């Protein structure tokens, strides 16, 4: 016959607390790793000309167009927004051109 030893409730709850602490620590480590990976991905894509060309297209798409609903915006507001989007798109394309030319290596 084998004897079984029951652990006191305090030990069991301590083990549970320790397990929870270990799980939380592992989740934090995993979270930090994914953040580091994402930071490296962002650093790599920020030096790709294609990324900046895509951003330029996005800003050109975001500019107000003739058929859009203006809401409470005045004609001056819409013109300013169009000019701002065009300026950012131009800057993105300029950066893409410099990256394509190898000036920023």
Helix content: over 70%
Number of helices: 3
Q: Give the integer mean of the pLDDT values.
A: 84
Q: How many beta-strand elements?
A: 0
Largest sheet: none
In angstroms, what is the radius of gyration? 28 Å
DSSP strand (E) fraction? under 5%
Question: How many structurally independent domains?
Answer: 2
Description:
The chain has 105 residues and is mainly α. The protein has two domains: 8-45; 48-105. The protein is 74% helix and 0% strand. The protein contains three helices and no strands. Helix 2 (49-62) packs antiparallel against helix 3 (75-101). The chain starts with 8 loop residues before the first helix and ends with a helix.
Structure keywords:
105 residues, mainly alpha, 3 helices, 2 domains
Question: What are the SSEs and their pairings?
Answer:
Blueprint: H1 9-45, H2 49-62, H3 75-101
Summary, kept brief:
74% of the residues lie in helices and 0% in strands. It is built from three helices and no strands. The mean pLDDT is 84.
